């Protein structure tokens, strides 16, 4: 639902306190309505709000005036941060131009957390044929705790207010005004105002207005395409205002680097340092209470493990896999972690719970370790933003060994191999909750980290028949091994084998499995291998008499060079990095057969990646090796077009048709088989004709 998503976005930074709103008169006029165990209020627009007008006509020169399925007439977001209060007002107006979208326009969802927020609905209106009508029917508003993140193992306590509009038609303008008052007290005022200045459909007018205390030192970050704010002081307020009109709908190209957003944004907050944010966060991670006896016993066992890297790895594995990931982020547990003893005893926790547990255990073993706040959604982009608690959405652990600094994620599972080769995602920066932290720290990928896949397909044709024995070995190393290991655990061996064999059936037709899927897991080296064995019943393609042909395909490389959903791009493109994929096809040449081709090598180079292909004959075999290697995690805008042309070239070269001239004896057998097939076809055809001619 396009506008419901906007309502949720408007909430994302709408955290406030239990302090009464600044407009006491408006509060006195509100009417509280309880429903289904929750409550919302109905009342007038607060006096501090500067109301916007909706024009009678959509501007003829504005985007959406012609061919448009949906039009956003107004997005107005205003916030009052004076005296430490948080009150946020939204005014949204939209029009379903297409009748197919009337269903979306007829309902609107607002999320809020009743533990510390109040929802006040001011009005719900509809304009048809130039006339506005009141559509606020409080009896049709339902409140329910819809845990939209529950499938992602997260319970947040957010309540959804569903507002239903009757009799909405294409061309109607629906308008809703509401406020959310209150802030999560655990944030301690360390939040920002965030406003986005584009959406998937055209916007006629986007307004943002934020009130600070008159003498507040305001930190502003804005995308370069947004005009500077209009700043004014009046009475006790410092006003920051942005107005942008006639905004085109944004096509989401996808495939962005973590740190990049195509949506122009403004972020405002009272100026503070990252050191102040770290001090706030450290208060949420006090000295832990006593640990349970069984965990003390485990600590004694871990303490005996040598060397130090193996000891740290053993603790990491226990926290990752003995404590499942599940978060109950209600009340102060949105940011305050549970006691390590509780997390261990109940055997579940979210990222901050597991990070605190891991750091506590390592500290008990004499290892310097601290929880570290990161942004899994925005990566290094947060370094530009106003420092604040709301910049982060994930917690990992910084481990300071005598000769290295490591970053470990206790929410991952089945990570194996050397401790110093275990990577985290491309997070860019982190805020370690260590004494004396003053700034963000760089999260560097370990130099030893690998992400490598090597596939060998070995084809052994039967000289006398048409069957081919195919053996496939796939070696995954580093991060690729972790992924493959998780895949096996999640799907099971039988389902995984079924998926593999179906792939070859799509390629070659009838396939018989000649052995169960074999798995080799070298956890110390973090190498995970699978071995598949099949018989291809008749994989040969049509060829000239006395010849056979078969095609191989570098499918393992295909995922790296497949074109993105949007090819004509104006934005950077992310690559999996660092990654190396090698696929080798080995074709055994039966005695007397002759391959009708030549050895050779080619290289296709690009600014972001490289690809080589080499074919050579040796000892009665033909071997074709294809290798892909990424050079950089991001393809810049100026290089995207050339890079995608390179991908097309690589993709077109992944397949190879192999033609063989048969030995005289095999050629005779092939000729006899074809003749028998032709004769059988003629006999069947004549029999059918005779049957049809029978009186």
From TrEMBL:
InterPro entries, per database record: DUF3857 (IPR024618), Papain-like_cys_pep_sf (IPR038765)
Pfam family, one: DUF3857
DUF3857 domain mapped to chain residues: 87-241
PROSITE patterns: PROKAR_LIPOPROTEIN
SUPFAM superfamilies found in the cross-reference section: Cysteine proteinases
Protein's name according to its UniProt entry: DUF3857 domain-containing protein
Species assigned in the record: Tahibacter soli
């Amino acid at each position: 639902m396009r506008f419901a998503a906007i309502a949720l976005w408007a909430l994302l930074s709408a955290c406030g306190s239990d302090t009464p709103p600044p407009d006491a008169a408006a509060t006195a006029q509100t009417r509280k309505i309880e429903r289904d165990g929750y409550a919302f209020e109905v009342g007038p627009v607060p006096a501090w709000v500067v109301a916007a007008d909706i024009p009678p006509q959509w501007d003829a020169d504005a985007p959406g005036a012609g061919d448009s399925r949906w039009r956003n007439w107004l997005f107005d977001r205003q916030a009052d941060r004076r005296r430490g209060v948080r009150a946020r007002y939204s005014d949204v107006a939209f029009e379903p131009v297409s009748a197919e979208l009337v269903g979306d326009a007829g309902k609107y969802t607002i999320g809020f957390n009743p533990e510390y927020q109040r929802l006040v609905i001011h009005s719900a209106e509809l304009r048809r044929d130039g006339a506005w009508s009141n559509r606020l029917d409080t009896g049709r508003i339902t409140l329910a705790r819809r845990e939209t993140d529950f499938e992602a193992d997260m319970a947040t306590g957010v309540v959804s207010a569903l507002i239903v509009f009757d009799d909405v038609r294409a061309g109607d303008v629906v308008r809703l005004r509401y406020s959310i008052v209150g802030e999560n007290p655990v944030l301690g005022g360390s939040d920002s105002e965030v406003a986005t200045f584009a959406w998937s459909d055209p916007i006629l007018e986007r307004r943002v207005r934020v009130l600070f205390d008159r003498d507040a030192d305001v930190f502003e970050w804005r995308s370069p395409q947004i005009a500077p704010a209009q700043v004014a002081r009046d009475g006790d307020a410092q006003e920051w205002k942005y107005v942008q009109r006639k905004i085109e709908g944004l096509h989401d190209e996808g495939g962005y680097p973590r740190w990049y957003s195509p949506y122009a944004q403004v972020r405002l907050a009272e100026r503070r340092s990252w050191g102040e944010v770290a001090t706030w966060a450290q208060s949420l991670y006090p000295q832990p209470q006593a640990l349970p006896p069984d965990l003390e016993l485990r600590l004694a066992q871990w303490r005996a493990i040598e060397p130090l890297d193996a000891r740290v790895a053993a603790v990491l594995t226990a926290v990752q896999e003995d404590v499942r990931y599940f978060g109950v982020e209600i009340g102060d547990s949105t940011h305050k972690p549970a006691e390590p003893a509780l997390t261990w005893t109940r055997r579940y926790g979210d990222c901050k719970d597991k990070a605190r547990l891991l750091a506590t255990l390592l500290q008990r073993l004499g290892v310097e370790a601290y929880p570290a706040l990161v942004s899994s959604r925005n990566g290094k982009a947060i370094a530009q933003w106003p420092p604040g608690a709301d910049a982060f959405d994930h917690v990992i652990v910084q481990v300071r060994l005598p000769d290295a600094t490591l970053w470990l994620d206790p929410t991952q599972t089945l990570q194996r191999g050397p401790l110093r080769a275990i990577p985290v995602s491309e997070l860019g920066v982190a805020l370690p909750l260590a004494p004396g932290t003053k700034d963000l720290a760089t999260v560097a990928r370990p130099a030893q980290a690998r992400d490598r896949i090597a596939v060998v397909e070995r084809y052994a044709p039967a000289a006398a028949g048409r069957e081919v024995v195919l053996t496939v070995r796939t070696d995954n190393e580093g991060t690729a091994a972790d992924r493959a290991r998780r895949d096996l655990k999640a799907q099971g061996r039988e389902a995984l084998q079924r998926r593999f064999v179906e792939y070859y059936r799509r390629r070659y037709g009838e396939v018989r499995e000649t052995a169960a899927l074999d798995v080799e897991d070298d956890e110390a080296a973090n190498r995970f291998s699978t071995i598949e064995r099949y018989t291809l019943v008749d994989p040969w393609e049509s060829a000239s008499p006395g010849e056979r042909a078969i095609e191989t395909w570098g499918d393992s490389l295909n995922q790296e060079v497949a074109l993105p959903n949007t090819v004509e791009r104006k934005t950077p493109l992310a690559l999996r990095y660092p990654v190396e994929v090698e696929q080798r096809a080995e074709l055994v040449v039966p005695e007397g057969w002759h391959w009708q081709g030549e050895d050779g090598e080619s290289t296709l180079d690009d600014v972001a990646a490289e690809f080589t292909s080499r074919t050579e004959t040796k000892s009665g075999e033909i071997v074709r090796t294809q290798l892909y290697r990424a050079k950089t995690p991001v393809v810049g805008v100026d290089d995207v077009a050339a890079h995608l042309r390179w991908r097309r070239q690589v993709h077109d070269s992944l397949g190879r048709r192999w033609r063989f001239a048969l030995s005289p004896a095999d050629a005779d057998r092939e000729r006899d088989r074809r003749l028998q097939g032709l004769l059988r076809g003629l006999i069947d055809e004549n029999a059918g004709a005779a049957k049809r001619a029978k009186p």
